[in-house]
Amino acid sequence: MKQKFVTRKIKLNSRDIFSPAKTFDCGQCFRFEEKGGYTEGVVSGALLRIKTGDSQGEIEYMTTKEEGIDSFFDPDRCYYDMSDDFISRFDGRGKDALNLALEKGFGIRILKQEFWEALISFIISQNNNIPRIKKNISSISRAFGERFVFESEDYYAFPTPDALLDAGVGALEELKLGFRAKYIVDAARRVILGEINEEELLLLDTDSASKKLQTIYGVGPKVAACTLLYGLGRLETVPVDVWMKKVFSKYFDTTPDLGIWGGVAQQYLFYNERFIIEGK
């Protein structure tokens, strides 16, 4: 059966802006590229395209998934109200830093990615850079994901836990995943056995869910936090690595409590600092 696009519009809070360029270039998602006036990627085994350019109060997208993928954009949250909350928590240079980060990064939305894909993506992200992470994820999808064709082009769903467990460490190492191959196989095995269960993680408090994820071989606090934030919608989770420690030290007197929307505030700070360093 020939696949076709369904066009959908999602209403956001009227004060919210959605920026595809910022959202897909802030280190949270690795399967999207700009292509011919669109940002294009694969979500839930379907192709998704969004027109390049910011929009206010709505998101319009096209997908080959008949029922749509609205939840991917987490449309029910108001980012304008969130920003008021975390800026109001600070004075002085901390408040100035957040205001600047908000000015630069507003339009980023935290995508509600599939848990399994987020877990493996951030396992792959360890000691890695964004271009190489994208290449690694593309390689395992081509090798072990289900193929589909649209407009004469091949696309690939993200591989299932069974597919990656069956592939084994050797095959993943051949795709230049290095030490991460063992981590991926252990994650697949634990998910298949039910030792790591998305529904259970959603019921746990953030700290307990993080500790549960860290029972996977090779998963530490940073990967666990990224999985909770980007794969389970736990927006209070703040992933902290060497990069973010430097950002916090630069702008805050102590490690800041960013509140219940801390993951969003962290994303703005990260995005803004990248632009300062890259001179954009």
Give a verbal description of the structure:
The protein has a five-stranded antiparallel beta sheet, with no helix packed on it. The protein has a two-stranded antiparallel ribbon with strand order 2-6. Helix content is 48%, strand content 14%. The chain contains twelve helices and nine strands. By secondary structure, it is α+β, with helices and mostly antiparallel strands. The model has no long low-confidence stretch (mean pLDDT 93).
What is the count of DSSP helices, taking H or I runs of 4+ residues?
A: 12
Distance between the termini: 46 Å
Order of helices and strands: EEHEEEEEHHHHEEHHHHHHH
Report the count of strand segments: 9
Strand order of the largest sheet: 1-7-5-4-3
Average residue-wise pLDDT: 93
Q: Over the alpha carbons, how many angstroms does the gyration radius reach?
A: 19 Å
Q: What about the largest sheet?
A: 5 strands, antiparallel
Indicate the proportion of strand residues.
5-15%
Uncertain segments = none
Assign an overall shape. globular
Structural class: alpha+beta
The helicity comes to 40-55%
Can you summarize this structure?
By secondary structure, the protein is an alpha+beta fold. Helices cover 48% and strands 14% of the residues.
Topology:
Blueprint (H helix, E strand, L loop, with lengths): L5 E6 L5 E2 L1 H4 L8 E4 L2 E6 L2 E6 L3 E2 L1 E6 L15 H9 L4 H14 L9 H10 L5 H15 L2 E4 L2 E4 L4 H14 L5 H14 L4 H6 L2 H8 L7 H12 L9 H10 L10 H17 L2
Antiparallel strand pairs: 1-7, 2-6, 3-4, 4-5, 5-7, 8-9
Helix pairs in contact: 3-12, 4-7, 4-10, 6-7, 9-10
